[in-house]
Design a protein that fits this description.
Blueprint lengths: L17 H5 L5 H6 L6 H17 L6 H25 L1 H4 L9 H4 L4 H19 L4 H9 L1 H6 L10 H9 L2 H10 L4 H22 L3 H7 L4 H5 L3 H22 L4 H20 L5 H9 L1 H18 L1
Length: 307
């Protein structure tokens, strides 16, 4: 199969962003490769780490650690996207949503992408070594997941599960950066994030399902098909239950649970309004998970400050 599926509604490529208007021309392909102009992935990688920093804090979370996690999320998300595009370079030109990315379009060569990946990884390592030894070792352990994730859709209908393991590692790392150890609370938060990712990335995958069938890659969207809404209820239900349990283990006060109720309403809205046959609807619901994550963060901070 060599023909790109023509489905312009599936595209998540935004034209004339700040990168196209303001960045030097030579930087633009690399910034696009790292998805700097599309920050939702950075938010989804960052928020579990911020949740964990806040849950481990006595009062407000440490601002310095919050900034370090922010920088780390930007560069490691960029590194992950670069690695993913290198792994998928023979698929992406066949998919409407990805055909204009820098590698399949030829704006960045394979060698240039590898060198860019090395640069981003070095910056990420410099961020990581600012933490305590336990957190550094824990952060390094996540690299195995980062490497294997791009290949999972070739072998299993559950690549979203591996993404959940990968993207929510910050839920463990944030606690470790504050406490120097792990306990049940961050473990429960990590599991909650995995179920959250299963939900939002299943919605996201519905944008590509027609293309995926033709090129032979797998996803939970293809596995669940019209039963997706029921699976979303289960995934998001476990997300909220596990977050509530994590709050109990961390001795969170009542404002946390009020905020968690608001977060649950947001997920209920996603489930009630998602249209798996409308790519733009799916993209909007997927992007709204930044708002869910910020509601949870506010709930944790409020629980620390006002309980």
């Amino acid at each position: 199969m060599t023909d790109t599926v023509k489905n312009p509604d599936a595209s998540d490529i935004t034209h004339e962003t700040w990168v196209d208007r303001l960045a030097p021309a030579g930087w633009r392909p690399y910034l696009h490769l790292a998805r700097i102009d599309r920050p939702i992935g950075t938010w989804l990688l960052l928020l579990p780490g911020w949740w964990s920093l806040a849950l481990a804090a006595d009062g407000m979370p440490d601002l310095y650690l919050m900034v370090l996690f922010g920088v780390g999320a930007v560069v490691m998300r960029g590194a992950g996207c670069t690695l993913n595009d290198l792994a998928d370079r023979n698929f992406d030109h066949q998919v409407a949503r990805t055909a204009t990315r820098p590698l399949p379009s030829g704006r960045v060569t394979i060698l240039q992408a590898f060198l860019f990946l090395i640069l981003l990884s070095l910056i990420g390592f410099l961020v990581l070594v600012q933490f305590n030894t336990f957190a550094v070792v824990l952060g390094m352990a996540s690299l195995a997941l980062v490497v294997i994730y791009p290949f999972m859709k070739r072998f299993t209908y559950w690549p979203q599960l591996v993404l959940g393991f990968t993207f929510n590692w910050g839920a463990l790392l944030g606690w470790a950066a504050v406490k120097g150890d792990l306990s049940l609370a961050p473990g429960l938060l990590y599991m909650a994030g995995i179920f959250w990712t299963l939900g939002y990335d299943t919605i996201y995958a519905h944008q590509d399902k027609d293309d995926d069938i033709l090129i032979g890659v797998k996803s939970t969207a293809l596995k669940f098909r019209d039963a997706t809404r029921g699976w979303l209820v289960a995934f998001y239900g476990f997300t909220i239950l596990l977050m509530a349990w994590a709050g109990t283990e961390a001795a969170a006060s009542w404002p946390y649970y009020v905020g968690l109720g608001a977060a649950a309403l947001h997920l209920l809205w996603q489930v009630a309004t998602v249209d798996i046959h409308d790519p733009k609807n799916c993209l909007a619901r997927f992007r709204s998970n930044r708002d869910f994550g910020l509601i949870v963060l506010a709930a944790i901070v409020a629980g620390n400050l006002f309980g």
